[in-house]
Design a protein that fits this description.
The protein is an alpha/beta fold. 50% of the residues lie in helices and 13% in strands. The chain contains twelve helices and eight strands. An eight-stranded mixed beta sheet has the order 3-2-4-1-5-6-7-8, with helices on both faces. The longest helix has 17 residues. The protein binds guanosine-5'-triphosphate and magnesium ion. Guanosine-5'-triphosphate binds next to helix 6.
Length: 301
Amino acid sequence: MAGGFFERLKSGLSRTAEAVANLLARPIDAQSAEQLRERLIAADFGPATAEEVVVAAQAAWKTDAALRKTTPAEAAVAAIVKALGEAPAALDISAKPQVIMLLGVNGAGKTTTAAKLAWRWQQENRTCLLGACDTFRAAAGEQLSAWADRLGVQVVGGAAGADPAAVAFDAIKAGTARGVDIVVLDTAGRLHTKAHLLEELRKVVRVTAKACVGAPHEKWLVLDGSLGANSIEQAKVFHEAVGLTGLIVTKLDGTARGGALVAVVRELNVPVRFIGVGEQPADLQPFDAQAYARSVLGLGA
Ligand SMILES: Nc1nc2c(ncn2[C@@H]2O[C@H](COP(=O)(O)OP(=O)(O)OP(=O)(O)O)[C@@H](O)[C@H]2O)c(=O)[nH]1
Ligand SMILES: [Mg+2]
């Protein structure tokens, strides 16, 4: 991770780091173990991960000093990294275009993330096309087009009120015709509690498959990192509706406690692909479990 990026992540997660760093810096007795567990749960890690971290941190101290290979803080990092499971495979762009659909509730950061992803991939010499499938608000298409202009990325949209599935279809067809590597579909924010909105999302998925075999290759849920434990229920509902293949957690530069990310990964068994720590294109980076765990526990890079 870039230095600036890690610093922002660290400062965003400092609330949790401040709560646990002292406890991890000294031998852990029954009382501090309990405090550590409580603070990890308060940071939304969930009971299973909190327990694993406490056990790992305690074990690091119990070991004979001469044999001690790790510190409680390092053992805690390892426990969090383990809880996050294996890193996802790199994006396969052998099939052109790779169609990536972004979805999530209102204001999670989908549109900004679509632009940031296109920017990042263009930096890696992969051509991108953005599909402005949020036809619900007139301003949504304009927001994505403004980003596309600024970053020099192609965009395909539809009129306000147009069928989002039709825009997705057009965007994929345009991407195929132009030979682009990746098509990113930005969708409208929708409440996970509204059945008809989830049905509309399923329709976009179905129509996408008609435009290109195997599409959408990825369905990534964009989650506002500052939502905490509320994001678990949200993620479960979206996963049940469309079968997610990845998560993007935004706004980790804010006041996020940070632990919900682990809780969601465990609940869904779906990996975090990227995290966002700001509003600029470079403020989105591939997820690095080590860097995240070190930040949330207040350790250096
Ligand atoms: N600080 C911070 N702000 C972010 C981040 N990602 C997105 N934002 C901001 O969050 C706000 C909402 O972002 P959008 O991309 O419009 O969210 P959206 O999910 O497309 O919203 P709807 O289309 O209304 O559902 C904007 O002001 C973004 O600049 C992030 O990682 N950090
Ligand atoms: Mg949007």
